[in-house]
Amino acid sequence: MERDIPISAAADRLDTTPRMLRYRESLGLLPVTKEQPTGRGHRHRRFSEADLRTVAAGLDLERSYDITPAALSFALRVLAEPATLARVRAYGERLGRLAPPPARALDFEQQKALRLLRRDPRSP
Predict the structure, then answer these.
(1) Structural domain of 30
(2) 67 or 101: whose pLDDT is higher?
């Protein structure tokens, strides 16, 4: 994939600033790059057309839902990390904003079997 658009031109096309693109990169909101540092160890980030479309999609999400880049970054983290998802879900349930997940049929059968095993054998 050809990466030939410098960060300043990418920022202009996305109607943002190079600084905001670097901030988004620090949050994990830019496509991953495998570019090696150039010069004195500085990496001059370059973008492909596909990269610009991806960043534009993120900007559109932020505008559509009136959220910050940090909020979008956290949403991605929740989707990618099961432990984080579980903690956020538990918090939502405590708040009453999320219903607990429905009991599965297998869970019901397991509970029934455990009740039967605990039953006093002398009872009718």
Answers:
(1) 1-67
(2) 67
